[in-house]
Amino acid sequence: LALGAAVGAGGCVRLLGTVRSDFLSRLAQLPLLGAEVPRAITLLRPLSPEGLRRAVQGPAEVAGARFESPELVDELVSTAGGGGNGLPLMQFTLALLYERREASTQLLTRRALAELGGAAGALARHADEALESMLPKVAAAAKNLLVKLVGQDGARARRLETELVDTEDARQALQALVRARLVAAGTE
Predict the structure, then answer these.
(1) How many other CB atoms are there within 10 angstroms of residue 38's CB atom?
(2) SS (H, E, C) the chain
(3) Is the pLDDT reported for residue 154 higher than 80?
(4) Confidence of residue 24 (pLDDT cuts 50, 70, 90)
(5) Which end of the chain is less packed: N or C, by CB atoms within 10 Å?
């Protein structure tokens, strides 16, 4: 409501925000702000390979870190895939890689990325560790929940909590998956 009020304040406030395309319809339903959405949309194209390189290198440079080689940057950029659909995976991998930087030189290395198992391996290891930290019955419930969150086409499937949680183990599993950032939860 505060954003809607600011936007409707007679043109004295400009608001720049970003939203994923799959959330535009929700944004358009918001009081005050929703009416402005159709006239204010500017579509951004996916990042170019050079834009992806800057997305990888820029934050590292600001943090005082540097990459071992241009090839390592190329490998990380490839994580984002064509058009940047893998940006969340790239971000996740970069955060873990930064944690494993060489302390004395602030160097981000290919060896550290290999130890993570690459981008896919890093996420798989994180998921495995999250499941291993759960009680066996809760871990089994978590695996069932994850299956329910994948559609027939392999894409993510949105589900209501009531569709996912039918036992105490399932409730604990969902909470643990959200805490581990393996599942995103929100209100509709």
Answers:
(1) 9
(2) CHHHHHHCCCCCCCCCCCCCHHHHHHHHCCCCCHHHHHHHCCCCCCCCHHHHHHHHHHHHHHCCCEECCHHHHHHHHHHCCHHHCCHHHHHHHHHHHHHCCECCCCEECHHHHHHHCHHHHHHHHHHHHHHHCCCHHHHHHHHHHHHHCECCCCCECCCCHHHHCCCHHHHHHHHHHHHCCCCCCCCC
(3) no
(4) confident
(5) C
